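Quick illustration, no need to memorize.
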Amino acid sequence: MTAVEEPGAERVFVTGRGAVNMADCDQWGHMNVQFYLARASDAQAHLAARLGLAPRRLRADQLALRPLTDRTLFKRELHGADAGADGMDAAAVHDDGTIDIASRMTNLGTGVESAAFETRLRLVGADDSTRPWPADVLAAARAHAGELPEMPAPAPMAALLPPGPPPLDRLLLTYRGSIEPWDCDADGVAPPRAHIARFNDAITHLFRAMQLDRKALLAAGTGSAALDYDITYHRALRAGTGVEVRSGVLAAGEKLYHIVHHVVDSNDGSLYTTIVVVALFFDLKQRKSVPMPGAVRAAAERLIVHA
């Protein structure tokens, strides 16, 4: 568990403090994944300012921070009215011009870590091409590097993906829509939350294909939750873009199942984002994992051919 200290403490910079609203929660009663990513994005803005990249400087120099990858581990649920805080720091500076940052979300009521995030960032110019980090920013990042414990090595989720380009024609169409200005940051680019919001809509349709009836599950006292998100951002997603999500099942075990979503351009099928998710079913009262319902598992196994 990572302790989250008060602002000004040396070990962890507190980048967020707030509470879970009921509007942040889904039908299973816990905070929805898109709002975890929204808090993480807000925290990154505070860390960027701490490293010397406040919004005024980014605007003046026509620079922006772009995530290349996001990894999120959901460790404990957060519910309405829970109070939480984020602690974040730079984790590593790489020779290829990227910086890894890590953060931990902690339930202040229990002291238990609720989620862990790791993001790989690059600095880009107005044309989205990579720019070198300013010397003072690199120095600040190196000064903070390594102060947070590393996230446990991930299970090889990406190894579940078929090799080569995704077989979009064999994946299910689970979302079709557009990216609107209110989905985007000030520079017109959709942040992680906007990507997750599309996946959140898509999963409902994938669940239908898996013969997962939410009303029946709720009646049986069963819910579903994501444990691990592994996200790759292939290119910036901008306002005015028509997008689709193509989804499939990668694996279905006794308790865990793996799914994939791809955000693609509706016009030419080019790829914006890929997310691999590991999830499970749990008892809504005991909040403990339970085996996948038999009918759901059978339907999921039939869908694996689509991945």
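The first strand starts at residue 13 and ends at 19.
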